[in-house]
Design a protein that fits this description.
This protein is an alpha/beta fold and 326 residues long. 48% of the residues lie in helices and 12% in strands. β8, α5 and β9 form a beta-alpha-beta unit.
């Protein structure tokens, strides 16, 4: 007997490989999958605006990439000695106004080019709850610890999300007709809003993605939310906060993602890389021994052989690191 509910994932015809160019937006959940893609040598641009939770903030960010927006002093604000952007995560904030703008514009320029060349856009919606700045009229991707009284808080409707994203998808297809989009809803619960409010918000996100898929058969949905809530229906798959999926859960979701979007050749490359990757991260007690230097040279030879076999996979970072340690 099968003592669990296994989620069936219909085939979409979409394959993700090491030749794919991947752009990823969304909540902290997508960071987990995105980091695994990066670790396994996929060409992935992960959260170029930092973590974003709601559909409207993600659509705002993508529209800025479509426009290739250049930020100026008027697009940022100062609060408690730091300069911030409501469109960006706090990792873009800085005490120096010019450095803040420079980092934002550098990220937009690189990611705008990536969007136009991407094969896959991977989007995770985390919450339907948004905070609109009363002063600027902007839905904040990050509130940067400003007082709650500075914002109007409300829940997006299915109509709000579908109307916004339907027009956005048309814009994206105009600049990149080959782009495929994978949607997912984060299984991370927003219990600060209350259990019932969390369920209502997740329902809005699920209904919105479903309606978008009905309008465009080329859109894909990966059921991470359903996998965690049904297949992994046990608190042993959560971190200590009982909200975020733990390492075991993330590995299982990665396995289901791999089964859905990777072919045999891609899985073979991952297997080859995983034989080299632990050696790159190995840190000995004494890095100056001849034995360790020999180990590093052997690892470097393995990376170069891997790169010659798969020249479309960038290993320059690992190569430079090993050469520096030698």
């Amino acid at each position: 007997m099968e003592f669990r509910t296994k989620i069936e994932i219909p085939g979409s015809g979409l394959l993700v490989s090491h030749k794919s160019r991947i752009l990823m937006f969304g909540s902290c959940f997508i960071e987990n999958i995105g980091n695994l893609l990066v670790e396994n040598k996929f060409n992935a641009n992960l959260n170029p605006f930092g973590i974003l939770y709601n559909p409207q903030s993600i659509s705002q960010a993508l529209r800025l990439l479509v426009e290739n927006k250049k930020f100026t002093e008027s697009d940022i604000f100062e609060y408690k000695g730091l300069f911030h952007s409501f469109y960006h995560h706090s990792r873009f904030s800085n005490t120096d106004k010019d450095k803040c703008i420079e980092k934002i514009n550098g990220g937009i320029e690189r990611s705008s080019a990536d969007l136009r060349q991407a094969n896959v856009l991977f989007v995770t919606f985390g919450t339907a709850c948004v905070f609109r700045s009363k002063k600027y009229g902007i839905i904040a991707g990050n509130c940067h610890k400003l007082p709650a009284s500075d914002f109007d808080r409300y829940r997006l409707s299915v109509y709000d999300i579908v109307n916004d994203w339907e027009s956005l998808i048309k814009e994206l297809k105009q600049i990149n007709p080959a782009l495929r989009i994978i949607f997912t809803v984060s299984p991370v619960r927003h219990l600060k809003d209350g259990a019932h409010e969390n369920q209502l918000g997740k329902s809005v996100l699920l209904l919105s993605v479903d309606e978008l898929r009905q309008k465009d058969a080329g859109l894909c949905y990966f059921p991470a939310y359903e996998i965690v809530l049904d297949e992994l229906r046990d608190y042993r798959f959560y971190k200590d906060d009982m909200v975020h999926p733990d390492t075991m859960a993330i590995k299982y979701i990665w396995k289901r993602f791999s089964e859905t979007y990777f072919d045999a050749d891609t899985c073979s490359i991952i297997e080859e890389w995983n034989k080299i990757y632990p050696a790159i991260n190995h840190r000995p007690f004494n890095a100056d021994t001849d034995e360790h230097k020999h180990f590093l040279r052997q690892t470097l030879l393995k990376i170069k052989a891997f790169n010659e076999k798969y020249p479309y996979i960038c290993c320059s970072g690992e190569t430079s690191d090993l050469e520096r340690r030698l």
